[in-house]
User: Fold these one by one.
Assistant:
Number 1:
Amino acid sequence: MADEEHTFETADAGASLTFPMQCSALRKNGHVVIKGRPCKIVDMSTSKTGKHGHAKVNLVAIDIFTGKKYEDLSPSTHNMDVPNITRQEYQLINIDDGFLNLMTQDGNTKDDVKLPEGELGETLEAEFEEGKDLLVTVVTAMGEEHALTFKEAPKGN
């Protein structure tokens, strides 16, 4: 009995990280999980049915967080996982030790999102230091969060 109770402690709020979708229903610019990574489909093609009767779907996808390219070949009738992706905009309050201090819509602070690496992070930091009011878009998928874009907040908010 104690084992059964223990399994509930590790469960999340019921939101699944992924959901299944038949390969033939996937579309270009949609999302899919390849090798355990959330990816955006950039190209896909379907081969004819072979002698064993399954059309194959060839997927080319880019990891939404790292930009790495992945390819996968799967029968069109099989299910593949599609990541549940959420986008949320936050106001940037501060940049502290490689992390963004963000304000949520309800006025709470969120400070567990890393400053993006490379040019995006450098530009974000430079514009913030210029005193610009910035909104950062944080994308969440499969338990990972990344700041992928930002823009200047409209004046008069």
Number 2:
Amino acid sequence: MDDYHHVVACMHEVSNLARKIQSEGRICLALGGDHSVTIGTVDATVNAHEDVAVIWVDAHADLNTPATSPSGSAHGMPVALLAKDLADYWPYLPGMDWQVPKLPLSNLAYIGLRDVDEYERLTMEKFNVCAFGMQDVESLGITGTVELALRHVDPYKRRAIHLSFDIDALDALEAPSTGTPVRGGLTLREGIHIMEKVHETGRLAAVDLVEVNPHLGSARDVATTVQAAQQLLLAAFGHSRLGNTPRARDLPLTKGATLKKES
């Protein structure tokens, strides 16, 4: 795993901070950076809540181990490291004693996959992982896809939800400034819809928005990617595309205006 010791130390700090935020009843937002940040953020969520579902929106499965990864990059391994089902597939990792894999793969659903390695595909089939690739999105539509994903990971509508969104889930035309872009992805509109539907559950505990890299591409590419990320985050936190209704106390007072008292 590239830069292993740095990743371990950083993710331990991330986990502690994210766990504190969630223990205070707040939604934890993590901005990446690469997707290895979820080693800390998802660890925090599964420890802060008794029962957790994860929606992983990504072009890639991030399900490799050091033995199967073609690149050796940490950002291609976080799901495998977090999954309880795969704990026996890892060698002892010095410095990682703080992290115990607790996430059942049955509580995970992918949306947007289109670049999956051979061993990742084998693992997904072996453990019957819920995965919606772009072919499924095309067949089911984005509403049907999200509804099925949520039904799978949270059938009784009671689990805390961790939503991890890699910007490369979007088509490269929508978000070009990212490290591993893959054409044929989600539109920004579809990405926003995913965020809106998860927000509507009322059980959103944490959000990751990762792999935005302002050092890649032209100034226009960077602006396009950052704007896309902003729209996704606004949707995740309840912004309505029709406009939000202001609370009564926020309305400007004008002559003759009367306001209904808030309950």
Number 3:
Amino acid sequence: MTVTAILPVPTTLVSRREAVFSPVAGQSSLARIVRSLAPVADVIVAAAAPLLDEVKKSLAQQGLSATRVCVADDPGARRDCISAALRVPGVADQVLLHDIAWPLVSPATLDRVVAALRAGSVAALPVCPVTDSIKAVNSNGAVTATVERTPLRTVQYPRGFDAAVLTRLITHGPGIDELDAVLTSGVSVTSVDGDTDTMAVELPRDASYLAAVIECRSDGSDR
């Protein structure tokens, strides 16, 4: 493999274990994401210490015991997970970052992000055009204008980075979010087409909806 995929499981999920481990259409978000990323990348799951044993057990139960798992630095925030994963021996020069709240991974989007990295991009983000009407409102909640949506995009996962650039951003960048860090760093960011069927979900609240999307996906895949 020439790409490493990092899946953070931060300490914020200790009180929301269902988001990681609850099965939807036969697989947990954890297993679904790992299986989706594995065809193109060597996957590392970086878990906060309170979740480490449960992550390993869950992966083993779902036939994924070969997946590499590392423990996050304290206190186990997303940034700490990413930092720990980047120090695992053998991490590739190009990495993908995913998020447990995005259990559906579009194979086509994944391929486009990887292709952008291999073509020389140091940061690659899958995006989709904003199609809803966007309105500006004042402090009283009254609509004051229609916002031009042509240049607006929503950002999805997975996100691709040059490993050295990501290490620098995570270590020295502002905040704890890699997207905020890259956008304020001056690093050139490449956008690629995302997938309108891919979205963030909140489990278990959205379990039925997610199962329906999986069932109806036009490509016939549960990825």
